[in-house]
Amino acid sequence: MSKLETPQFKTYEEEAAFWDNLDTAPYMEDDGEWFRFETPNQRAIRVAILPNVATELSQRARAQGVSMETLVNALLIERMQESAATS
Length: 87
Prior knowledge:
Shape: elongated
Structural class: mainly alpha
Number of strands: 0
Number of domains: 1
Largest sheet: none
Order of helices and strands: HHH
Radius of gyration: 26 Å
Number of helices: 3
């Protein structure tokens, strides 16, 4: 890994050009962890909805200005919270 030494800049434009064109790879430690991201292993699932229920959900979602997916998730969360409160 090299040490980055920055020159003295005479103008803002000169400094901007320096940073815009700088390849930082030689100045980075290669510890193999650069692009490791810890993300939860979650994924959406699909559920079949009866056509008449889907029509009602679509109308309600449109009236509320949200997607049908957002409305369904909100309704499910609300119902699960109610169920947990009564258990």
